[in-house]
Amino acid sequence: MIATRPASFQDLILTLHAYWSARGCVILQPHDVEVGAGTLHPATVLRALGPKPWNAAYVQPSRRPGDGRYGENPNRLQHYYQYQVLLKPNPLDMQDLYLGSLEAIGLDPRLHDIRFVEDDWENPTVGAWGLGWEVWCDGMEVSQYTYMQQVGGLDVSPVAGELTYGLERLAMYVFGVDNVYDLPFNDPQGPNGGTSYGEVFLENERQMSAYNFEVADVDTLRRQFEDMERQVNRILDEGVGPQGQKLVLPAYDHVLKASHLFNVMNARGAIAVAERASYIGRIRDLCKRCASEWLKQQEAA
Amino acid sequence: MPQLLLELFSEEIPARMQAQAARDLERMVRDGLSAAGLISEGMKAFAGPRRLALVVEGLPIAQADRDEELKGPRIGAPDQAIDGFLRKTGLTRDQLSERDGVWFGRIQTAGRPTPQIIAELVEQTVRNFPWPKSMTWGSGKLRWVRPLQRILCVFDREIVPLSFEGLTAGDLSQGHRFMGSGQVFRARDYDEYHEALAGHYVVLDPEERKARILEGARTLCFARNLELVEDEGLLDEVAGLAEWPTPILGDMDPAFLDLPPEVIRTSMRTHQKYFAVRDPATGKLAPHFIVVANIAAADGGAVIAAGNAKVLSARLSDARFFWDEDRKSGFEDWLKKLDGVTFHAKLGTMAERVERIAALAREIAPLVGADPDVAEKAARLAKADLTSQMVGEFPELQGVMGRYYALADGMDADIADAIRDHYRPQGPGDAVPTAPLSVAVALADKLDTLVGFFSIDEKPTGSKDPFALRRAALGVIRIILESGNRLALNAVPGVSANDLMPFFADRLKVTLRDQGKRFDLVDAVFALNDDDLVRIVARVEALDGFLKADDGANLLAGYRRAANILKAEEKKGPLPAGAPSAVSQPAEEAALFAALQALEPKLDAALAAEDFTGAMTALAALREPVDAFFTAVLVNSDVPAERENRLRLLQQVQTAMGKVADFSLVTG
Predict the structure, then answer these.
(1) In this model, does residue B546 exceed pLDDT 60?
(2) Nearest-5° angle of CA B362, CA B364, CA B368?
(3) Residues 98 to 157 of A: which have CB under 8 A from any B CB?
(4) For chain B, which domains are there?
(5) The whole model's pTM is what?
(6) Cβ pair B146, B13 in contact under 8 A
């Protein structure tokens, strides 16, 4: 089935939503805390753990402060969208399902060269790893495909299959656009058509780049990081839910906040090389605490 | 004779693991079959992106039957003994027979059918397969490199009954992911299998895939009057990424040709897995590339070529950005950044390491014909490019970029070359630097590495050499030997304190062995505590020549005889000290005394002149007197004074020969 090519960036997202919705995924909205990647949404990091099946798809705005280029680079953004799919346990025909999604957005595998190239995924800040591939379309990486083996240092069992599409890059390819800011955000032929990606996000890139690189206050960030770190431990140690459970979800939100604060400090050039590993280790420890509490709750339920 | 065909069909296997996986599959099945007494006429394994396959020809349909006669207790033995024998053999009393006063039991075992053995063997092989990394998937427990989806296993055209972990073997396989019908097909033997795969756009044999790529790429180039830049490692990799490899020629924006060719090639190779293409007339890169696609597209690959060209442009734009930015910032900035780069937790920062290398290069420079000031300067610049953006992106361009940036900065060409070449030799196939300045920095770099890691006790052990210290030592040896530079290694700070010379001796043995020389002589020469590699090798070569000749071989025998006598006599009491005295009788003793007297000045002169062949020739004069002495003279004389003098003579023979080498360590 080759669908008609989506007409715009948002159409691409809606096509993926429709595709994965028809395959039984819950279609979620983004998590409302700043994250560096779609994996960090609790719908992936936490839901990957435990015995329960879980199938979800969502768009996650992702922030990588260090990648900002003041809106002057046609490929690099400090804020972009990832499309994330998690299928747990991964179905045996997951590769075919994935390839179907590419066809749905207009990439015909008999005309384009689609290949699965080894790429073992690892995220040291959440103590996660898996085996899989970068998926290439005509030499361009369009997705990351991973069979998650561990999260927070704990085995993912049953295994969750994770798909991450870099939406801007994919869209640039599908629409034959060389500059991300030229992407049609909505249908150029439709009513009120012709809004470009640049009209939506260029100013955001300029201001956020200036903030991340020049204005963010390092002392404040450092203090906030330490606050968040303390809060994670306090919430897990002292907080009790209505059923007597530990408050893993709010604790995990605080881990995400700490992680983002670290990313901004890093972009600001405030983290010495020797410090870096220790910050990452601190975040990983927090994340591991949340992951193991979550797993306990899932296994008890 | 019946044939076994096995296919393990999975999701995409990493290219770098395929060749080893084929070897492992073949080995495990061969070992398993032969352990079961099943010997085949031949087997061949194949690996590709989605399958491991194995065909075994000429297997028997079952194991041979076994008929064994087991000797039991003697007739009339206690019941306990007979019961024990029955338990052991599983026989009953009436099945025993009697012969020569002893009970015998006969056990006949029917050979098991081959398919049963294959079924067990395939399951064991899959469960124990030595993938470098493996995973589980879905709700299963089985581990494989990526999800294992299907097993085809047929023996003598019949499906082998086999089922585990939700997988059941059958006679089905499937072809290319995108080309052809996409339907499964049946195969009951290798011919059917091979033919069906070809019909479903799969080239099974990796060698055939490689040939197809090379031929296709060369043809494309030839038609455009271009030449393929061949690259064996890349060829192996791309042959593992496509079941139906199809080379396509793409165009690159010629504006990028002003980038260093190494940058273009590295970007093509590491990021995109493209082959570079050159203009045969100029030998320079041409504005094209070869990409190996996995499909033969209906449009002849036009869309694929255009898409890849676009990706390459983005990659090269990044590279150009780094190239431009790097030339704006330059060495001073980078050197400052080295402060923040840890070389090793126990060995400090890169900046500290650079200081050490610079100091060392300064000391080594005069010994290799380089200017100390210039060597120190070049060494100080040699690691700066590690913090450049380009090397951050492409670590394999370390040194290469430093040279370009040094030239762009207007530095002297010999400094620029030293920056690039100080990493050499990077392996056995790589040339050593020859310019004195490059030699000085290269030696300083490698010696600092060796001294540093030895000082924190990070020595290589067995197959583990995480800091490539063996390569560094080999590099030092090759640079010194190929340049003929005289360098007292023990004078290099840290070499003797960390006892590095034995490590060099080991590496030198490997070098000489690789050159087909007698490496066992290295020990005999190293025992003299020399630290000048050029002299050591000259000595080894002269010694080798000497021992190959009659005189040398016989003198070695004489040396050993003397050593044995001295060893035996030493047990009785301390050997007499001092020089032997002249005697007139027996004549053979007088002759040996005279020969030793004549030898010493000649030997010392030859050694002082480092004329080792001359020294060996001088030693050769000892052969006859030594032989004659042992034939005619009894060392252990009853007259104590005679005995003592003869022992002194033998010690003198040992001492004289010991100036050339420690003959006691010659093994051959």
Answers:
(1) yes
(2) 120
(3) 99, 109-118, 120, 130-133, 137-140, 147, 149, 157
(4) 4-62+114-199 (no CATH), 66-109 (3.30.70), 206-328 (no CATH), 335-531 (1.10.3210), 549-665 (1.10.730)
(5) 0.81
(6) yes
